[in-house]
Design brief:
alpha+beta; Aminopeptidase; ten-stranded mixed β-sheet; three-stranded antiparallel β-sheet; 16 strands; globular; binds coenzyme A; binds zinc ion
């Protein structure tokens, strides 16, 4: 359960710098506090060293004069103590990136469950399906064939759905939160969102079992910023005005801005200011907020089902149906991502055909 996961787990610190909360002007403010919850925040029984009664030599009563027991007049015999090597240690799983206490049964069990969800997805059982019919969950696509031959379908619902589906959604969002080292989606963001899920059918014709293997959260937003083209970034980085800041790393970590010219020819110098989003992926944006209807604050596909087109399919379904009767086009700039991961950036470039923008999820409520 998510509440239990919160107790002892922390994922690796996000290496990505955070995008500040409001467009343009406040982008130069220092980044908000680290997303990672310090391990020491919530000590568990296993994590907290237990105090053991120590035998201190000082406490030994001094032998009194005339004490009959001769042995007491000598130094007490010291015993060699050994360090215990089987004490719990913090481990980060290479498969799901979660840090947990090895040797602590609770942590081991919670990690096992989380790791399975990250790799293989979450069960979509009969009970969820029964409720889905009553709760008005829409089936947007059925009998979808993936490139590996597997089949599935795309469903959509609002996060305030309630019942078993809401409980399942809470576990799913917590799994994504841990996998991305991101903060939880706030109720205000969720109120303006729709959830799109890819349900994969278990192999075998007769099987009715399904797994949630992909999730897109789509949020109603108002503005976002256009991503700078690579030529604009390199022009900005090599322009004289940015020469004091040697590398893109420095620029991003200081949340400074870049000045450049749109045209590298000296005759038409049009200053352009770029804002760094993530220097490790060379992602910069133009600071002007542009009207944009749909944001994607979360995007996740379980690791065993990646590169099958699931994320792209979910994004297309979201763009087509998010606003009733008004299909959105990523190429036209109707869709924005929050600060993307490396793989997220690859998807936004491949799926978005250069038109996807960047926004800050809490700054757009
Ligand atoms: C990012 C993520 C959702 C992509 O899901 P996916 O279902 O594998 O994406 P798709 O199959 O639709 O990929 C579409 C295209 O994007 C590009 N792409 C996707 N993942 C990529 C990767 N890891 N490296 C390079 N390119 C990638 C490819 O061009 C791909 O097309 P191709 O497979 O025909 O080459 C998935 O990797 C994931 O959940 N990662 C962990 C969480 C995360 O980083 N989320 C993004 C937050 S912004
Ligand atoms: Zn793991």
């Amino acid at each position: 359960m998510p509440a239990e996961l919160k107790r002892t787990y922390g994922t690796r610190a996000a290496t990505r710098p955070l995008l500040p909360s409001s467009p343009s002007s406040e982008l130069t403010t220092p980044p908000p506090p680290k997303r990672k919850r310090p391990f020491t925040d919530r000590p568990t029984e296993q994590n907290t060293p237990t105090k053991k009664a120590r035998r201190t030599l000082k406490a030994e009563p001094k032998p009194k004069a005339g004490d009959k027991s001769k042995g007491n007049s000598k130094q007490p015999k010291l015993t060699q103590l050994h360090f215990s090597l089987d004490t719990p240690t913090l481990r980060t799983c290479p498969l799901c990136d979660l840090s947990y206490t090895r040797g602590a049964p609770d942590d081991e069990a919670l990690h096992k469950a989380h790791c399975a969800r990250v790799q293989r997805g979450l069960e979509w059982g009969k009970e969820e399906q029964r409720e889905a019919v009553k709760a008005g969950v829409e089936e947007l696509q059925s009998n979808v064939k993936l490139r590996n031959g597997a089949r599935g379908r795309v469903i959509c619902f609002r996060p305030d759905i309630g019942g078993k589906i809401a409980a399942k959604l809470a576990v799913l969002l917590e799994t994504i939160r841990l996998a991305l080292s991101s903060p939880p989606l706030s109720p205000a963001v969720l109120r303006r969102s729709k959830i799109y899920l890819f349900l994969l059918a278990a192999p075998g014709l007769a099987s009715t079992r399904e797994k949630i293997v992909g999730c897109v959260v789509a949020q109603r937003i108002s503005t976002a910023m256009a991503i700078a083209r690579p030529a604009e970034v390199s022009a900005a980085l090599s322009s004289p005005s940015s020469s004091q800041t040697q590398s893109s790393e420095t620029l991003a970590s200081s949340q400074s801005t870049l000045s450049s010219s749109q045209d590298s020819s000296e005759s038409s110098v049009v200053p352009v200011t770029l804002l760094p989003v993530d220097s490790s992926t060379n992602l910069y944006v133009h600071p002007q907020p542009l009207p944009t209807p749909m944001g994607i604050p979360r995007l996740f596909v379980s690791s065993e089902h990646r590169r099958l087109g699931i994320a792209s399919r979910l994004l297309t379904a979201a763009a087509e149906t998010f606003i009733l009767g008004c299909p959105l086009s990523p190429a036209r700039g109707d869709v924005a991502f929050t600060q993307p991961t490396g793989a997220g950036k690859a998807v936004l470039e491949a799926w978005g055909k250069g038109g996807v923008r960047i926004y800050e999820e809490e700054g757009n409520i």
